[in-house]
Amino acid sequence: MPIAVTPSGTSLGARVAGLDLAAPLDESGFREVEAIFHRHQVVAFEGQHLDEEEVIANIIVTMVGGQETTTNLIGNGMLTLARNPGALAQLRDDPDIIESAVEELLRYESPSQHTGRITPHDMVLGDKELKKGAAVMAVMAAGNRDPLRFPDPDRLDLLRTDNRHLAFGWAAHFCFGAPLARIEGQIAFNTLLRRLPGVALEPVKLEWRENLGLRGLKSLPVRFQQAVVPA
Ligand code: HEM
Q1: What is the pLDDT of residues 45-96, one digit of tens each?
Q2: Is the pTM of this model over 0.85?
Q3: What is the pLDDT of residues 1-28, one digit of tens each?
Q4: What are the pocket residues of ligand 1 if the criterion is a CB atom closer than 6 Å to any ligand atom?
Q5: How remote is the CA of residue 202 from the centroid of ligand 1, in Å?
């Protein structure tokens, strides 16, 4: 999704998914995008109005955070299942395991690989001393394969229990869209396995997108038999 964020005067101008976030006000005093926020009554929070930059920042994080990540959950998950035919057959034969299957696919091939933080004060994290203001990169995808946390972490186990992974982050900024993304993943995997019998990878070189933070394929070429089951 093309995103351009450019400073315009003192305000932040941005275009996300076709919405011009810095468009001129209409006759009622709203931009299209602010009108959307007003309709959903989220412009004011606990009595405080969001300013323009906060409205734009919230739209960007919701639209960007919610689109490519979920797309990559589905693409990475299908790749993982195709590379593990035993697990694929297990899920196809027993769709009721979908909830734990999606959690394991999120852990195993995490769509969101890392995030960043600025340390609020001097602190010790593990065996590292961090100065106030230091930029820290937390690689959730590495934590998700940590052998101290997950037994046999490189093994795909769709029935893994105690699977408290970091794919949606942790604590105050835990993913706002996690319940939606989980349901989307559950519907997508079960539907794809039901409607694409014999789905398997085409023997071509896979190309990953170049974004280090959002792990996802440019495309996932597969073959499958003609569906014999109703949609
Ligand atoms: C598989 C899909 C998704 C993954 C892997 C994912 C991952 C994440 C991660 C790791 C964070 C925490 C970032 C941090 O702590 O710095 C986050 C936050 C967030 N996500 Fe998602 N996300 C997904 C889907 C969605 C969807 C569908 C939406 C919106 C509908 C969404 C909206 C957000 C928002 C608004 C935040 C910021 C929350 C905050 O700062 O309080 N995400 N997401």
Answers
A1: 666 766 667 777 777 788 788 889 999 999 999 999 999 999 999 999 999 9
A2: no
A3: 333 333 333 334 455 555 565 566 666 6
A4: 61-62, 65-66, 69-70, 73, 111-112, 115, 140, 167-169, 173, 175-177, 180-181
A5: 31
**Nearest to residue 193, comparing CAs of 167, 159, 229, 217?**
229
User: From CA 110, how far away is CA 79, in angstroms rounded?
Assistant: 12
Spatial separation of the C-alpha atoms in residues 60 and 58, rounded to whole Å: 5
Where exactly are the structural domains of the chain? Answer: 1-50, 66-223
Mutate to test the pocket of ligand 1, among 69, 165, 175, 180 (most ligand atoms within 8 A of CB): 175
The pair of structure tokens assigned to 79 is 């790749």
Question: What is the number of the ligand 1 atom nearest to the C-alpha of 166?
Answer: 10
Ligand 1 pocket: which of 1, 40, 69, 72 to mutate (most atoms <8 Å of CB)?
A: 69
pLDDT, tens digit, 9 for 90 and up, residues 175-224: 989 999 999 999 999 999 999 999 999 999 999 999 989 999 999 999 99
CATH class of the structural domain 66-223: mainly alpha
The pLDDT mean for the chain works out to 85
Q: Give the pLDDT score at 10.
A: 31
Which residues touch 164 (CB under 8 Å, ≥6 apart)? Answer: none
Q: How confident is the model at residue 123 (pLDDT cuts 50, 70, 90)?
A: very high
Residue 118's SS3 state is strand
